[in-house]
């Protein structure tokens, strides 16, 4: 897929902006704090209505405005030319695809795959298991709507169970919710295990192109509990009840899973150099994009938020080698790229975009 | 609607108010099934032509009305007045669960059709009924199917509905 037009209203520092994006390579150039990342953030919403910068969705509207609106014209391999509109003011956000309201998120997520790369990706290495779970959950949800539904039901079920634990609910009620949680937990574990293996295979290929020396990336699933089959989840939660009641929350389950991410020399967090860590993150995002392309039969768009400049020349060259030509790349930086003629360039100042 | 009644048809508004206040004074819950009724037992529970040994368990009276409009169910009902949802402070005590237990324990129920919503709370409520109310009694328990609307095509169905339809597919005869 490719973006051809973006119109934004009241999005962060952008009062109104319209950009022609009908080019394979688009570059947004400007000083810090002018609105480059805001624009990329708006483009990133189309995968799952999530921001790659914040979980506070309310913070995306311009200060003093009632809400934001975003309009995207997209060239799509399956759907042809698509007009997509996202509006967020009071109440839930509304999404219109060619004027038709999207009723279920599971029918939308992953339909317009976009992969963001930003310095915030280092949180996948340095941050908490929750950061890594969010990355994997978004990847797997985009690939399969059934995963998204299982995830949503699982979290809803855990919230119900936690309330019972806090309020001294009966064992019978707990058993009823545990029975319904178990198949969703099993599905999450199964899909995470398979999904991580598939992503690791692609990551190894991408990393070989990117890194001068092949330290070999490590990516594996680290489940919070080992359960074999649906019944074993029920048994585990039943055995855990007295402890969970004391703590007032479900201590074991896929909501506490983690993913090991690093280089063969050891955990990249502890042993990798800054450059190695950044290289690994770029490789992970390219691998995510390649996996989307393979599984969804839609070529995703790469949003590169000022990260290529942070790579050494060898890794930067490796990025272009690893990156399939078919990807539309919309990048940002504080200086224009070396081969500026290959890019459609915009200058960004105070939320305004001018063709450079 | 309020503006229409006030401006266009004020006399209808008066009628509506007196009807609503009369209904509020006389309508109550059926002591047996939880349906709306002006007498202790509702018309459905008193209907000799219906097989009250088969019960369709629903969340709300509106669900009962919808099933009645379809004319597809000739048994009795039991209205739970909700589903288990600890987050919303709804446990078995807040639901019309005690009277269902009494009906089951009286030994007159042979079949339960669980027509509760297809979400985690609805499913947990079904599980609770099966494990805590029915226990090991010989009662046939079924869950209503979830799938495509009658006359509806596959093209415009959402993915959740299609998944349910495929999950509950049956052999073609």
Could you explain how this protein is built, in words?
The complex is a heterodimer of chains A (356) and B (173). With 356 residues, chain A is α/β, with parallel strands linked by helices. Chain A is built from 9 helices and 14 strands. In chain A, the strands form 3 sheets. Chain A has a 6-stranded antiparallel sheet with strand order 2-1-4-5-6-7, with helices on one face. In chain A, strands 8-11-12-3-13-14 form a 6-stranded mixed sheet, with helices on both faces. A two-stranded antiparallel ribbon of chain A has the order 9-10. In chain A, a hairpin with a 2-residue loop joins strand 6 (94-97) and strand 7. Chain A is globular. The two termini of chain A are 25 Å apart. With 173 residues, chain B is α/β, with parallel strands linked by helices. Chain B has 2 domains: 1-30, no CATH class; 42-171, Dna Topoisomerase Vi A Subunit, Chain: A, domain 2 (3-Layer(aba) Sandwich). Chain B has 7 helices and 6 strands; from the N terminus they run ααββαβαβαβαβα. Chain B has helices spanning 2-7, 10-26, 43-46, 61-70, 97-105, 120-134, 159-167, and strands at 28-29, 36-37, 51-58, 75-79, 111-115, 140-143. In chain B, the strands form 2 sheets. In chain B, strands 4-3-5-6 form a 4-stranded parallel sheet. A two-stranded antiparallel ribbon of chain B has the order 1-2. In chain B, helix 4 links the parallel strand 3 (51-58) and strand 4 (75-79). Chain B is globular. The N and C termini of chain B lie far apart (49 Å). The chains are: A alpha/beta (356), B alpha/beta (173). The A-B interface holds A 103-104, 106-107, 145-146, 149, 153, 156-157, 159-161, 163-164, 167, 169-170, 172-173, 175-177, 179-181, 184 and B 84-87, 91-92, 119-121, 123-125, 127-128, 131-132, 158-160, 163.
């Amino acid at each position: 897929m490719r973006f051809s037009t973006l119109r934004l209203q009241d999005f962060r520092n952008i009062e109104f902006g319209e950009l022609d994006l009908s080019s394979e390579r688009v570059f947004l150039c400007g000083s810090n704090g002018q609105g480059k990342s805001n624009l990329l953030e708006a483009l990133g919403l189309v995968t799952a209505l999530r921001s790659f910068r914040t979980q506070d969705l309310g913070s995306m509207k311009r200060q003093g405005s009632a809400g934001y609106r975003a309009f995207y014209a997209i060239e799509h391999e399956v759907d042809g030319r698509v007009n997509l509109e996202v509006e967020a003011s009071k109440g839930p956000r509304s999404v219109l695809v060619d004027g038709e309201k999207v009723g279920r998120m599971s029918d939308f997520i992953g339909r317009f795959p976009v992969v963001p790369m930003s310095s915030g990706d280092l949180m996948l290495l340095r941050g908490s298991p929750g950061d890594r779970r969010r990355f994997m959950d978004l990847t797997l949800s985009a690939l399969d709507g059934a995963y998204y539904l299982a995830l949503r039901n699982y979290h809803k079920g855990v919230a119900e169970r936690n309330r019972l634990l806090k309020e001294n609910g009966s064992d019978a009620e707990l058993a009823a919710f545990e029975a319904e949680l178990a198949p969703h937990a099993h599905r999450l574990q199964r899909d995470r295990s398979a999904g991580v293996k598939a992503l690791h295979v692609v990551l190894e290929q991408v990393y070989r192109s990117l890194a001068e020396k092949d330290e070999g990336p490590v990516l594996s699933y680290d489940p919070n509990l080992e359960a074999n089959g649906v019944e074993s989840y029920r048994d585990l939660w039943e055995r855990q009840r007295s402890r969970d009641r004391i703590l007032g929350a479900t201590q074991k389950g896929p909501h506490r899973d983690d993913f090991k991410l690093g280089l063969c020399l050891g955990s990249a967090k502890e042993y990798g150099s800054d450059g190695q860590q950044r290289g690994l993150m770029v490789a992970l995002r390219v691998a995510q994009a390649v996996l989307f392309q393979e599984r969804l039969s839609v070529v995703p768009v790469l949003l590169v938020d000022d990260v290529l400049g942070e790579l050494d020349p060898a890794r930067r060259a490796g990025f272009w080698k690893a990156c399939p030509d078919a990807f539309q790349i919309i990048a940002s930086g504080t200086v224009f790229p070396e081969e500026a003629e290959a890019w459609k360039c915009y200058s960004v100042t105070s939320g305004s975009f001018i063709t450079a | 609607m309020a503006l229409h009644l006030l401006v266009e048809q004020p006399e209808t508004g008066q009628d509506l108010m007196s009807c609503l206040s009369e209904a509020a004074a006389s309508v109550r819950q059926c002591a047996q099934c939880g349906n709306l009724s002006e007498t202790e037992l509702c018309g459905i529970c008193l209907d000799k032509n219906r097989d009250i040994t088969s019960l369709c368990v629903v969340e709300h009276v509106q669900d009962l009305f919808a099933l009645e409009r379809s004319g597809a169910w000739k048994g009795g009902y039991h209205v739970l007045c909700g589903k288990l949802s600890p987050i919303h402070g709804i446990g078995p005590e807040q639901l019309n669960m005690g009277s269902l237990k009494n009906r089951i324990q009286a030994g007159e129920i042979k079949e339960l059709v669980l027509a509760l919503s297809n979400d985690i709370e609805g499913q947990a409520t079904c599980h609770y009924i099966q494990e805590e109310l029915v226990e090991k009694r010989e009662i046939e328990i079924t869950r209503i199917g979830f799938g495509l609307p009658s006359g509806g095509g596959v093209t415009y169905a959402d993915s959740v509905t299609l998944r349910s339809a495929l999950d509950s597919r049956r052999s073609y005869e």
